[in-house]
Amino acid sequence: MVNRDLLLEQARKAREQAYVPYSGFKVGAAVAAADGRVFTGCNIENAGYSPTNCAERTAIFKAISEGVREFAALAVVADTPGPCQPCGVCRQVLAEFFDDDVPIFLGNLAGEVEETRISKLLPNAFSAKSLEGTDK
Ligand code: THU
User: Fold this and answer.
1) What's the sign of the alpha-carbon dihedral 87, 8, 14, 2?
2) Nearest-CA residue for atom 10 of ligand 1
3) Degrees (nearest 5) of the Cα angle 96, 33, 110?
4) pLDDT by residue (tens digit) across 21-37?
5) Residue to probe by mutation, ligand 1, list 22, 25, 79, 80, most atoms within 8 Å of CB
6) pTM for the full model?
7) Could you list the active site residues?
8) pLDDT in tens, 85-117
9) Which candidate in 31, 79, 106, 122 could, as Cys together with 91 as Cys, close a disulfide (CB 3.0–4.6 Å)?
10) Cα 36 to averaged position of ligand 1 atoms, centre (Å)
11) DSSP string across the chain
């Protein structure tokens, strides 16, 4: 069982590493693997703008590149008026790797937290199933 508040704290800490010279908007994320390992990430911006990587994807890609395939929870924190909402690209990446029983904790610096699931964030996602029975 993942400790929600600890994971949010790890996301909050990761946020401090954000490289955001263009937006100034810092985001932190922490993802817990099913084996208990935690990977953190921050957003990393680029002068070319589109190469920017969100905090969620930094954390998830770090985990995937270390062999993780099963996830237990994700926390995201930013200085937003309400809980920080993941962008559409991150939702698609979450849909690739997260089963629907994996809790996703969206938070902010004020301590507000929303718990959600990938099917709520991205209903009817395009997924591996969508490719079944096609020529690919
Ligand atoms: N960003 C994230 O890192 N995660 C989100 O959930 C929303 C947006 C980043 C991308 C960019 O560096 C900055 O926030 C402003 O869009």
Assistant:
1) negative
2) 54
3) 90
4) 999 999 999 999 999 99
5) 25
6) 0.96
7) 56
8) 999 999 999 999 999 999 999 999 999 999 999
9) 122
10) 26
11) ---HHHHHHHHHHHHTT-B-TTT---EEEEEEETTS-EEEEE-B--TTSTT-B-HHHHHHHHHHHTT---EEEEEEEES-SSSPPPPHHHHHHHHHH--TTS-EEEEETT--EEEE-HHHHSTT---HHHHTTS--
Token reading at 87: 């962008």
Side chain identity at 1, as an amino acid letter?
Answer: M
Alpha carbon distance 6, 69 (integer Å): 22
Measured in whole angstroms, the distance separating CA 20 from the mean position of its chain's CA atoms is: 17
